Every structure is written in C-alpha cells, then in structure tokens.
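Blinded run. Sample ID left blank on purpose so nobody reads anything into the name before looking at the predicted structure. Input follows.
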Amino acid sequence: MDILAVIPARGGSKGIIRKNLRLLNLKPLIYYQIINSLESEFITDVVVTSDDDVILDYSSNFPVSLRRRQDSFAGDNVTLDPVVNDATVYMELENGKKYDVVVTLQPTSPLLSFKTLDNAIKKFIDEDLDTLIPVVDATHLHWKEEGNTLIPDYSERLNRQWLPHKFKETGAFLISKRNFVSAESRFGEKLNIYVLNDLEGLDIDMDVDFLMAEAALKRLKITLVVNGNKNVGMGHIYRSLTLADGFLGHEIKFVTLDSDPASIELIKSRGYSVIESDKASILSELDSSIIINDILDTDVDYMRKLKDSGRFVVNFEDLGDGSKFADLVFNALYARTNPKSNERFGYAYECLNEQFFLYSPIIFKESPETLLVTFGGVDTNNLTLKILDIATKIFEETTINKILIILGDGYSHEINVDDINQKFESTVEICFKVKNMPLLMRDADIAITSNGRTIYELAFMGIPTISIAQNDRETLHVFARYKKGVEYLGISCTVTSDDIYQSVKELVVNNDLRLKMHLKQKEASIVLRNGLNNIKDEITSEYWKWKHEYKEI
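Blinded prediction complete.
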C-alpha cells in the first residue's frame, strides 16, 4: 500500500507572522511534522508544499519531495483541499504511480507523535475507512448565539462526566483514501474520528500556544526510586511524594526498593504508579531520562549502572561512595566542609510537605501552654518514654498544661495508651498516623524532636525547639547545632530525662530566649518556603545542560 504524506506550509500567516518557520524548542515549527512523516512505518513518500522559498529550502535538508505552490493556492481564503490535491497529483506524475492513501499533516500540530500518527493510520486501514478525522474531547457546558441572544447548548446542567460527548476537530492530520482527494474535498462517506489527548491535539493558532507547546516539549520523564519501612521510616516516601507533586504535569512514576505494603499503598493513594523492584533488576524498570534516588547512601556499582545506561541521576541525602557518580546530590540535613560541584547542601534545599504552605507560623505567647513531642516515624531510642517520665514534673513546675505526643507509623515500642489516659487524663494526648502535621503543630508553643527532617517543619511553623539526635548520622545535622531557633542537646545516649526537663523549664520561664528562638525560626521559614522551587530549578536547569552535552535534542 502506497501512502503519501502532504505537509502544507504557507509562508504567510495573519495570526503569527511566518508561523511555520518560528522556532519551537530551537526547531522550526514545520520540523516536527516532517520528522513524524519520516519516522512513520506506514508512510511511503512525503511532500512539502509551500509558496515560500525559505520553507522549501529548509525542507530540502530532509529526504522529502518539494512542491512549489502556485500563487493562486497561497491566499488566506484558500482551503487545504486544492493544495493537497495539487501536491498529490504532482507526486503521482513525478513517481509514476497512484497512491492508495493521502495523509495531510499540518505543521501547526507539533506535539503529535509519530506513534500516535501510526496508530491512527492503522485504525484507518483496519476499519477500511474513507476518511479519519483527529479530534479532542470538548465535552463541556457550551453556549451558542442565536441572533443577538445567548442560549445554552445543552438540555440539562450536569457534571462533565455525565454530559453527552462533544468533539472538536484539530488540524494534526487528516487521512483519506486517494479517490476521495480532490480540489473540492478530502471526505468520503465512511468516516470516523480519532481522539487525541489535549497535548497532541494542540493547534498553534496564537502566540500563547507557542508557550504551551514549548512547555509540553520540555515535559520530563521522571522515575523516583524510594524505600520506606519500619527501619528507615516513611520520610523518604513523603519527601518523594512532595517532589512528585511539585513536578505535577510531568510524567512521573515510582520504583520501590525494600518497602513495606504501607509505603506502597501510600504512593498509590496519591495517584502514582508503583513498581516493586530490587537493585539487581532495577534497570529493567527504568524508562525515564531522570532518575531520582531517595534511598540514602548508594554504592559505586549501583550508580555506575545507572550512569552507563545514559540517565541523569539525582540523589537525596547520599553520603555513600556512589554519590560522586550522581549528576546532583541534595542534602538539606548534612553538610560537608568541601562540597563537590554536584552537591547542594543546606536547608535552602529542604522539600517541605505542601500542607505546611496552608498554615501560618504560631503566635508567640507570654505563657506557653502546649508542648509538642515528636521523634520521627520510628523513635529508635524511645525518647517518647523519657518525656512521659518527666511529664508530671513539667505540669507541676511550669505553665505547660498539655503535652501533645505524635507517634510515627514505625513506632514499635510498647505503650499503653489507656494507662497514660488514666494517669494524665486529658493533659497528655497521643496521636497516631497523623494526616495533617501542621494542623497539630500550630497549637504548640514549644517542641521536642529528634534531629531529622521534623526540625525544618517546626522551624517553618516558628516553634522554639529542643533537639536530640537519635544516631550518629543525625549528629551531622548542622541546622539544629548552629541555628538559634533550636537548642541542641546532643545524641540520645548522653541525654538524661533531667536534661530534657531543665531545657523545657528554661524555655518556659525565659520569655526573651523563647521569643528570640521564635523569631529565628520565622527567619528560617522564609528560606524553607523556597526549598521545593530551588530543588526543581536545579534539577531542570542541570538536566537540560546535561542533555545538550550528552546528545543533540
């Protein structure tokens, strides 16, 4: 079967001057449909028809035929029918054959993919159609004009999913049997539609369409490799979900390593696809150009495999030997004295949960009342128990009248909530599986936490904080050690219950100190607010630099 692709590209355009030669992602608009036609497995020959010498000259760089359109076919009022017919007749005379199918490809649909084009041609052939028309779903509540009156173009106001389908034609392509192509028409009797998604169905009519098309052409394919379980907690999962939400609109998927069902279900509940894998077979699951690892320290073998496969690799909190092979390493918690060129350190790169942006910092009180306690998802050393041991003393000797304890999903120590409720009545509240952390934090006046990511959440809320490191790795977290909004007590094995009590008491009675800490936390919140954007900007800018160097776009 011989199939001809006709690409009509006029030199003039009233909406956007010389539209077909305007650069889109550094390529002329006409480039995209030329490439589609050449990559199609069905199209036999391609002809570009134009009245413009520059368009024809540019098109001569590709293995396509050229048809110099006569001036009578170049006016604004001329439809595509005589143009396509003229090019078809010309090609049949030139090649001495008659085509079976003619495909019109308009340059104004640069987001159409050759795979979609081939699927449409296959549908046309399989259904033995005369004409196949591309459309986009335009099902909405429409209005129409009748005379000088606006009236609804629907019988009943319903939600979109219950409305009868309506479709709008798009100029991406039009497929016709040859015997229906004439100077008057390209439509046969047996026709059907091919529904394109909104991106591939985008027509470039106005200058703002260029902006949307440019953004769509730079749509990223990102795979986030994460792990979450009772040993490492859920922090990696939550951060990766926040990052994925930050890249909303790009193509995102997750691959989990050594993760429990709760972690996997959490990702799925946010609408993302998840693949379970292991490091040995992970390459077979990666079809994205950007890989983001949130699995702590990586080894050399794993990272070499990723880089040798031609991926742009981003790691979070990676202090392992494999980090030197990453294109970017983000670490908001731990700093190095001599960071490498691929490393980005500090709280300017903290990825806060988007819920925090819905709440304002706390209002400072002269007499603090609520103490918030949260030691992360696991609380390895059961620091929560030390707080309960001194709770009565805190109530008796300070103005604190409520202790709010938040336990993470990975908390595995024994705790008898009934006994606690009986002992403290309503003065101690224990919360499990918190869905909205800032909602609880906004009621706190002072907080005690471990030296992990919660430090930044408390800073964002402006809460004076006492910090205790759970392990050697957390002792490297410099924010708690050097920022004046946090009092750092050291590693848990050296901290007694009395140390904690004395710190709480000092913050309660020393208003000047607590106010200074509150204001310092609010200062830090300004930087923290931009953390997600800083990460996104670094990833996208460094990725495009890498892509330009790695291969031609």
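Unblinding after everyone has recorded impressions. Residues 37 and 477 are 55 Å apart (CA to CA).
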